[in-house]
Predict the structure.
Amino acid sequence: MSRRMMGESRLRIGARNVRLRLDIGTMMDLEDHFGMGLVPFLTDRLTEFRLSDMAALFLAMTGGDFGDAEARRKAAEKLLKAGLAESATAISACLENTLSPPEPGKPEPPKAAVKAVAG
């Protein structure tokens, strides 16, 4: 189950559920890696859908070395195994949950919506 409060989502890869989560330090490292802030990256570059960018985000969310080209290639293989639509949905949910946490006192989304993201 995803914990929206903590900015998490999950992605099922084969028989494994992988937890996706970003912290502030990793977000700053991603900005350095991409050479731009996360908001311009999300609004401009991510819409181009580069598998390498998705793999870098996945590695950042799982504690991997997103600066390593070979690690990004292996991560891209995992994303393809999980399904690109499912991978993109889980990565997007993690970004949304991290960058737009729920307001205090506001209820979390229904469990069915969380399960659809979790796989």
